[in-house]
Design a protein that fits this description.
The complex is a heterodimer. By secondary structure, chain A is α+β, with helices and mostly antiparallel strands. Helices cover 37% and strands 21% of the residues of chain A. In chain A, the strands form two sheets. Chain A has a seven-stranded antiparallel β-sheet, covered by helices on one side. The chains are: A alpha+beta, B mainly alpha.
Chain lengths: 239, 93
């Protein structure tokens, strides 16, 4: 009887440990974000999207003929032509590796007219368009954005892609990954270190917000957690 | 006469009190709902302001040992890199 009770206690402890560990490793869910509004409310992100759209004709010309490509876009021509014969998972793997080969570069501060603050705001970093990133590299948010645009080009719907901003336990700054949802509902998170989290996430990471060309979603609504996010970006200096 | 007046006054104030008591919760509900909407939109605005100021910058350099691609994908990646550097696509020729 005593053995049975001890075994039961052990089973309860194990179940508790598993439950406690689950939130630390549970992957990204497209259904869980709280809709905050349209993407253009985030002025800097909207400006990067506008620059990307302005580059569309350049990209089209480059995809049609390699000779029309500036040096930094030749790879896009080759990638799109090679990816045509691949399945969805292989396309995602190819894009993740291709983008992660680009050099990391720290952002410079930028001033943007904030739509929500209705004033000029100084930001520590800026979002880059695909061509800007391919020409000169960028930081983690630019890696995720470049993957976003390339996968859009390779046939993924905007509804199935989100740049997800995260914060890791003990980290000094925020990080960005790309979330990709497949037809069967599986969600992969693509990281700049080449890791792909299949229905999981880096240990100790929490999702802060997500964005795509359509909308912004909050992943910490009403928790008060955002109140601990520094108001001034200077406190969030590069790691 | 005075007693009749007194009775009417009592009835009137009584009825008025009942009417007010009935209306008050409705008025309060309306004010709460309005306030909640205003508060929500302010909170969203505030939240968006916070989010757009977040400096997303963590550096995680590419690690070739992570999620190693299948040989066929690795071959394609090398091919893409060669085309990128040379500006020449052998498949097209």
């Amino acid at each position: 009887m005593r053995v049975a009770a001890a075994g039961c206690r052990r089973a309860v402890c194990l179940a508790w440990l598993l439950l406690a560990a689950f939130p630390a490793t549970a992957g990204y869910r497209f259904e869980t974000g709280v809709y905050l509004g349209e993407a253009d409310l985030m002025a800097d992100w909207a400006a990067a999207l506008a620059r990307h759209r302005a580059d569309e004709s350049l990209l089209e010309d480059c995809l049609a003929a390699l000779e029309a490509c500036p040096a930094h876009l030749r790879g896009v021509h080759a990638l799109v032509s090679r990816a045509a014969g691949l399945g969805a998972a292989e396309r995602v793997q190819l894009v993740n590796r291709y983008v992660n080969r680009r050099p990391y570069r720290n952002d410079r501060p930028v001033e943007v007219e904030s739509r929500v603050a209705e004033t000029l705001v100084r930001l520590s970093g800026r979002w880059s368009s695909l061509t800007e990133f391919l020409a000169r590299g960028g930081d983690c948010q630019d890696y995720a954005t470049a993957k976003y645009h390339l996968l859009r080009r390779l046939g993924f719907a905007a509804e199935d892609l989100r740049v997800v901003v995260t914060r890791e336990r003990g980290a000094r700054g925020h990080h960005a990954l790309l979330a990709v949802r497949f037809d069967d509902g599986a969600v992969w998170l693509l990281d700049s270190d080449n890791a792909i989290y299949r229905d999981g996430k880096p240990f100790g990471t929490r999702f802060v917000f997500a964005i795509n060309e359509q909308s912004v979603w909050d992943h910490e609504p009403g928790t008060g957690a955002w109140r601990s996010t520094p108001e001034t970006p200077e406190r969030e200096e590069a790691s | 006469m005075r007693s009749i007046m007194k009775g009417t006054w009592k009835r009137t104030t009584g009825l008025l009190a009942i009417a007010l008591a009935g209306a008050a919760p409705a008025l309060a509900d309306e004010r709460t709902a309005e306030g909640a909407v205003r508060t929500a939109s302010l909170e969203v605005r505030e939240r968006l302001m916070t989010l757009e100021r977040i400096h997303v910058t963590a550096e995680k350099p590419a690690d070739p040992t992570l999620d190693v691609p299948e040989p066929e994908l690795a071959r394609l990646l090398d091919e893409i890199e060669r085309i990128e550097q040379s500006g020449d696509d052998p498949v097209r020729e």
